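Re: iron/sulfur cluster structure - here you go.
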Amino acid sequence: MPKKYHIHPRPARLDLEYMFKFDITRGENCINCGKCTRVCIYEAHKRRQDDPRRMADPNTVVCRNCFRCIQECPRGALEKSLDPVFAAAGGDFWKPDMLISLWKQAEDGKVPVSGAGYRGPFTGTGFDGMWTDMSEIVRPTRDGIHGREYISTAVDLGRRLNHLVFDAGGRLVSRVPDTVSIPIPMLFEVPDGGLAPNVRQALVKAAAEVGTGVIVPAADITGDLEEVAGSLIPRVAPGEIERYRGVIGKARLVAIEHSDALMTDWPQLRLEIGKIGRALPIVRVPAAKDVEDTVARLAHSGAEIIHIVADYCGRETGGPGGPGPQPHLPSERRTLKDIIRAVHLRLVEDRIRDELTIIASGGIAMAEHVPKAMLCGADLVAVDIPLMIAVGATLCQKPEKQLVYPEGLDGIPVPTLAQRMVNLTAAWHSQILEVMGAMGIREARRLRGESGRAIFFEEVDRDTFGRLFLPGGSDSKGEAVSR
Ligand code: SF4
Ligand code: SF4
């Protein structure tokens, strides 16, 4: 059995306040009887240290929303209300509950448990409209989660051969291309807008600790990141290769921004990168409306790793110039789930899918999005915003995207911030293992494109009700059905 990959979470509390779902307030009619100190097993209610005759303000941080203190207060003095910061956070994609869950996972690396059963909706847009086939969950003898069988989450980046060629003497003739292996199907990425130096250092340190790479604008790579240089993936424009020769020469992967000229210039550019060092190039392609055509053309030109970049909510972007003006209405833009499926199918049709690596990013907000993106056809994902939530950032979608970092963050030591990012990755890794174990899949590489192991709500809906309600009546394959 191969040596087990394990991430070591450790409690890493931040001395910063994060938002809470509810506020608890103690009214003037409190008689300081102390009953709430006895009924709250989480010790949210305590007496004041300077005057034990009186009650201190409730500690909302530890509250688990059981409502017992509210019900048992003899004077009805306690009130619980939705925190206005919570109510204003996130948006239709980044739900405030999601932000709190990410924050909690970063505290100790534990898998979040909501308890009392799932009370949310069973379908929605994007990955919420997709369910994984957990049919193996009832077969504990095959359970690899608890150590009886090894589940590998390792993936490879680089070009692969469709087949091997041997000479008459049985010697391998094919030249096997170089690849980079990482133990989890996740790269880290610096989000748009830049980072404080200590947060950037922590991100690179955390990537090194969990054994993955981090995509960083080459201009931000400074001497203080030298000790973890092996984890850096410098991000450059095609015209900047020569300028950043030094950092590219030390890297194992380099991310190149896509441009229209790249379609014709790629073979020459690939040669140029090859002369600098061993870095394998990743081409970053915005998830625009025609992304599957762009990816197919790049793949046929020899690109070995392609990174599809959707917007921060996992929707189609405006085009090669970045988010920019949207060419079509938000409601018409595909989600990352459909974008990856379209790219994967296009490459399968072109018989080139097995040869290249697809990275997907944008709107990877929860652990379950990683295996779901892979089932749709990605080899791995890149993660940015959740790692910022781990260090205390909050996100607002309205009126426009705003990632807000907490005051005092720049004074937090790098090891604490890095440990929180490691904790979050550990919690996600455990959840990926849970999903894979329940699906009976032992190799993350085998998740890629296994859409037959997933159920897509739109297809089930169309197959079940399409014949009744859609014009002409058709099923998910577009075939007419008689009524
Ligand atoms: S139980 Fe009610 S009245 Fe008693 S100390 Fe707590 S808040 Fe005050
Ligand atoms: S709601 Fe429950 S957990 Fe929260 S403070 Fe009251 S008793 Fe404690």
